[in-house]
TrEMBL record:
This is 7-carboxy-7-deazaguanine synthase. Pathway: Purine metabolism; 7-cyano-7-deazaguanine biosynthesis. Binds 1 S-adenosyl-L-methionine per subunit. Binds 1 [4Fe-4S] cluster. The cluster is coordinated with 3 cysteines and an exchangeable S-adenosyl-L-methionine. It comes from Aliidiomarina soli. Keywords: 4Fe-4S, Iron, Iron-sulfur, Lyase, Magnesium, Metal-binding, Queuosine biosynthesis, S-adenosyl-L-methionine. Transmembrane segments: none annotated. Substrate binds at residues 11-13, 26, 91. Its cofactor is S-adenosyl-L-methionine; [4Fe-4S] cluster; Mg(2+). PROSITE patterns: RADICAL_SAM. Residues 17-222 form the Radical SAM core domain.
Length: 222
């Protein structure tokens, strides 16, 4: 069973697929504990917060409510919504707490392409066709470590930064856990802070990396 926090259609605001119309499936639960996490309502999976799948669609705003759903039920809910996007982004919470093989295979068989957003701290269990975005989380309060196999599987590294020490930590991580040739490296300023954005721009320019600015936050969309 998957614990689903929300399902909605919007524009992908981050990383390589920025600007692409996408269906977002947000799964409940994350133990990593990033202090600046913008989805803290997905951290805990409380039994008291369980709702029926049909109630998910009526949700407005951030809430810790979640519905237990099978992969088939998720596909049916997606199809019922009349979405036009063909790109499904599976995020969270930490989606790699779940085995995503069955869901991603089912979505591919139905004609969708899939992408996952993960911290790289759990084993990635997903279809070989899935685009994997690893946003590495280093020295976070939850005590989880970034896995070398996650870094090697990544199609894209999207590193959240605010200070030079975050770039230095990414350099050290890339030494310790190499990525595959052709993996795109994006820097994403934390919480649109001006200093962080300036540093990300300057570093991307020097390194020929890519800037990811959370477009949806500038546009005030979901
Ligand atoms: C909320 S996380 C969920 C997926 C997964 N747990 C992860 O961390 O990749 C989705 C993306 O948002 C990024 N993110 C979270 N809070 C942010 C913030 N305040 N500023 C910039 N990026 C943030 C994460 O680094 C990650 O790339
Ligand atoms: N528009 C939009 N793009 C996103 N890209 C990654 C997101 C996430 O929360 O994982 C996200 C999100 O929450 N909204
Ligand atoms: S790993 Fe992702 S969901 Fe978990 S706390 Fe960090 S940013 Fe938030
Ligand atoms: Mg988000």
């Amino acid at each position: 069973m998957l614990a689903v926090n929300e399902l909605f259609e919007t524009i992908q605001g981050e990383g390589v697929f920025t600007g692409v119309a996408a269906i977002f499936l947000r799964l409940q639960g994350c133990p990593v504990g990033c202090p600046w996490c913008d989805t803290q309502h997905t951290w805990d999976k409380n039994n008291q917060a369980q709702v029926k799948p049909e109630q998910l669609i009526m949700k407005t705003g951030d809430s810790p409510s979640w519905a237990g759903m099978s992969e088939q039920a998720v596909l049916e809910l997606i199809e019922q919504q009349g979405f036009t996007a063909k790109h499904v982004v599976i995020t969270g919470g930490e989606p790699c707490m779940y085995d995503l093989n069955a869901l991603t295979e089912l979505l591919h068989e139905t004609g969708y392409q899939t992408q996952i957003e993960t911290s790289g701290t759990f084993e990635i269990k997903t279809s070989a066709q899935t685009w994997v975005t690893v946003s590495p989380k280093l020295d976070m309060p939850g005590g989880y470590e970034v896995r070398a196999d996650a870094m090697a599987r990544a199609n894209e590294i999207k590193h959240p930064i605010a200070m030079q020490k975050h770039i230095d930590a990414l350099d050290a991580l890339l030494e310790r856990c190499p990525v595959a040739a052709g993996t795109t490296i994006c820097l994403q300023p934390i919480s649109q802070r001006p200093r962080a954005t300036e540093l990300a721009i300057e570093t991307c320019r020097k390194r020929n990396w890519r800037l990811s600015v959370q477009l949806h936050k500038y546009l005030a969309i979901e």
